[in-house]
Each structure stands twice: as C-alpha cells, then as structure tokens.
Design a protein that fits this description.
Elements (H helix, E strand, L loop, with lengths): L1 E5 L3 H11 L4 E6 L2 H8 L5 E4 L5 H6 L7 E4 L4 H14 L4 E4 L8 H10 L3 E3 L1 H14 L4 E6 L4 E7 L11 H7 L5 E8 L2 E3 L12 E6 L4 H7 L9 E5 L3 H10 L4 E6 L2 H10 L4 E4 L5 H6 L7 E4 L4 H13 L4 E5 L6 H6 L4 E3 L1 H10 L6 E7 L6 E6 L20 E8 L2 E4 L11 E6 L4 H8 L1
Parallel strand pairs: 1-2, 1-4, 2-3, 4-5, 5-6, 12-13, 12-15, 13-14, 15-16, 16-17
Antiparallel strand pairs: 7-8, 8-11, 9-10, 9-11, 18-19, 19-22, 20-21, 20-22
Length: 446
C-alpha cells in the first residue's frame, strides 16, 4: 500500500514507525527539514519537505498514486484542507485529525465526506474514552472492550498475595479449569513475553488477560487484587480530555476538577454542572489535603504537561489514592513512569496512531490498540471466507510464536480461545501480537 502521511509530529512519526515494519511504501511530508532528516536516518521511508496545503508539494509527494493519505499535523485547519486537496488530486482514501467535536456529528461528518474526507480522528475524545473505561473497572490496567463488552482485555499486576505467583501457566490452567479467561501476554520489566505452558508468573509481572466480563473478579482474586467501587474522583487539568471525562463521570460519581487558570476555571464551572470546579495548583499538597484527596478513590491528571501529571499521580498515591491515571505525552517517559508506579497511563497520540493503523491493513480489522506500557498491539479481526485461519483447529494452525489468540466472538456468543476450537467465517477474533508477527497474522485472516 502506498501511504502519504502529512505531519511529522508525535502521531505521524509513531504511525510511520509502526508502518515501516510492514511492506508499505511510506512518504512523510512536513515543512520542518531538520525533523525529517532525523526521522529519515532511523526509518525506512521517503521524506518530502513541503506544505500539505500546497498542491505543488502534494503532487511532489506523489499523492495522486496514494492508497491512503493521512493528515495529522497540529493544525486542524491544515488537516481538513490537505485531505480535501489530496482527494481532489487522486488519493483513494483520506483521514484527517481534528480538534472539534462538532465535526463528528452525523450531519457534519457526512458533509465533510462529500468534500473528500473519508475518516475523522479526534485524539482527545479517544483519550477521554480510555479514562472512563479504566475507571469503570477498579483493580485493572488498560481495560479494553471488544464487541460491546462481550470480551475484555485488561492488565493485572501480580502482587505478593497472588496465589499464582511462581506458578507456570500450565499449573494455573489446571487450577482454574472452571474459569473463562486466557493470559495472552506478560510485561516483565522492559520485555513483553508471549506466555506458553512452561512460562512462570513472577511478582510484579503485568499480566494481560482476555476474559468474559463476569470473570474479572475471579481473575483479580488470583492476582491478589481486590475490587473496589469508585465513588469519589478528582481530575487535575481542565484540558479537552479533562472536560470530556468530567462531563461523563460527573453523572456517575462525586467529582472535583482542579484547574490552575482562574479564567478557565470560571468557564468550566458554568459548563460542568455535575462537577465541582476548583481554581488551584494540583501539585500543592496542602490544597489537595483541603479538597479531601484522602477520600478520593481515583485521581486523573490530564494537564498539558507530562511531568506535572506524573508527579501529581505519585503525590496522590502517597496520600492514599488507590487508582491513578496520568496523561503522559512524552513517549520517552512512559516506561520510566510505569517503573516508579505512576499507575495507568494514556497517550492520545499513540491512541490516534493505533486507530489509524487499522486502515492500513488488508485484513478486516474492527479494532486496533497499542498497549501503552508494552510494545504490542491488540487486534480484533474478522475471519474472511476461505482464510487460512478457518482451515483447522487453532492448535493445528501454524500461528506465529510472537502472537496469541485470546478470544472469539461468534454472533452474540463469546468464546475463550483454546487449541481445540476452530475459527469460523465471520468470527471476530481478538489477537495479541508483537510487531514482528503482525504481517503473518494479517495473512492468516485475509
């Protein structure tokens, strides 16, 4: 596939990195020559210096022959203009990053499609959705729902109280034959492991599990975790993510939002009827005490500064908050923040890149998620008629070693994958895969 990406910021660069592992012809267009030179030295792609709103520069980037044109610059106006122009020049499919909720309303989205914009991506909305999802299930990390919650993927840390610590996967399977779940990966320090029968669970492992919804509490008990209700929460930062999260959560729990800018606080107080808006610095320990941080079940830091969010979450944990979520936009900080116990992390740029990535695959991909603290992807793929994945039982198929089938959704039924199950045409299959196996997995589902 020939793909032109406009914008060499964090979203465009990460997307180009993901795609460079595949057999795509990638062109990255940006007006910052120094940035492109740096990227060109690390990735196997073609860079073009120029403006994505210039017809001349778009033609130079060979947009006319592009199967997919993606505009993810920091400017919404630039993204909209460039996708319209790219479609006019000849791009087969176009995607634009936006910052305006109004464009997602059905009538507006339909109008933009008539202009040549096939898909819209709103990173802040994706991030707010992630926060809300994480807070809906206490005790877990990186909660994802597939097919409306028929299957769930979540991460659980193995504590010293866990009954499965130091046991192998085969031993745990023998202990839990009546439970519908499957451990699909383990994050251990800096390594992501696809577990096999002999793999042993260790204290501190972050285990990624696929299960049915009703099984979560049993899995948590195995890991030494306890479920608790989140009734009181505090949000630091009146960003778009903070606002969208507050609008949704304010109806379900007691919510406070801290914003350091006084004028912005006044505006937020008018628009957020179900949340108490407080003007103040969320890094101020005394202010947090005054606002009852010790009574909070969850703390969400979504200011525009990664360092502030990390430090605020560490402070909230020290003051007794069980559940903390930090927006960490500096990708280099993610592993460090995870190792020092910040809690759950979100990165709207990586969420956007993962969302877009599924449009670059030949297989029918319903969902694609890049796991924040892992170097892996989770895909929900549809088994096409005659595809190799349907030609035998899972245990008999030559499935890549760097990937794992977690579960299957067949019509309204969810099934945890085992070796003796045969995937059928139109099944939705949840696959956990490292980058090295994505292309092989894709071929099995084509």
């Amino acid at each position: 596939m020939k793909i032109v990406i406009a914008g060499a910021g964090a979203v465009g660069t990460h997307l180009a990195k993901m795609l460079s592992h595949q057999d795509h012809d990638i062109i990255l267009l940006d007006n910052d020559e120094d940035k492109l030179t740096e990227i060109d030295s690390h990735l196997d792609l073609l860079t073009v210096v120029g403006s994505s709103t210039s017809m001349k520069d778009l033609k130079e980037a060979d947009v006319k022959k592009a199967d997919l044109f993606i505009s993810v610059t920091e400017s919404e106006a630039t993204n909209i203009t460039s996708t319209i122009l790219a479609k006019k020049i000849g791009a087969q499919r176009t995607i634009a990053r936006i910052d305006n909720q109004e464009y997602l309303e059905p009538e507006n989205k339909e109008y933009l499609q008539t202009l040549g914009i096939d898909e819209l991506i709103y990173p802040e909305k994706l991030a707010a959705k992630e926060v809300i999802s994480y807070l809906s299930r206490s005790g877990t990390r990186q909660m994802y729902e597939f097919s409306g919650g028929k299957l769930l993927l979540y991460g659980i840390k193995i504590s010293s109280k866990s009954v499965i610590m130091d046991k192998t996967l085969a031993e745990v399977s023998g202990m839990t034959q009546d439970m519908d779940f499957r451990a699909v990966a383990i994050k251990r320090e800096d390594t992501t492991i696809i577990p096999r029968g002999h793999t042993r669970f260790s204290r501190g492992d972050l285990v990624f599990v696929i299960s049915k919804s009703e099984c979560i509490e049993k899995v948590m008990n195995l890991a030494g975790k306890r479920k608790y209700d989140i009734k009181n929460a505090m949000i630091l930062g009146g960003s778009r993510i903070g606002q969208k999260t507050a609008l949704e959560l304010g109806k379900k729990m007691n919510l406070k939002l801290l914003e350091i800018d006084k004028d912005k606080s006044l505006k937020l107080a008018d628009s957020l009827q179900d949340a108490l808006v407080i003007n103040g610095d969320g890094r101020d320990k005394e202010l947090l005490k005054e606002e009852g941080i010790h009574k909070m079940d969850a703390f969400v830091a979504v200011t525009g500064n990664s360092e502030t969010n990390i430090l605020a979450c560490l402070l909230a944990k020290k003051m007794g908050v069980k559940r903390t979520i930090a927006e960490v936009e500096n990708i280099d900080y993610i592993d460090l923040a995870d190792s020092i116990g910040v809690g759950t992390m979100i990165n709207k740029k990586l969420l956007a890149a993962s969302y877009i990535y599924r449009f670059t695959m030949d297989a029918d991909v319903q969902h694609c998620k890049w796991l924040t603290v892992s170097d892996a992807e989770v895909l929900e793929l549809v088994a096409k008629p005659g595809s190799k994945i349907t030609k035998g039982k899972i245990g008999d198929i030559d499935f890549p070693d760097d990937a794992n089938i977690g579960g299957i959704i067949r019509e309204d039924k969810s099934i945890i994958a085992t070796g003796d199950i045969q995937i059928q045409t139109d099944d939705k299959v949840v696959v956990f895969t490292l980058p090295s196996a994505i292309k092989k997995v894709e071929k099995l589902f084509k």
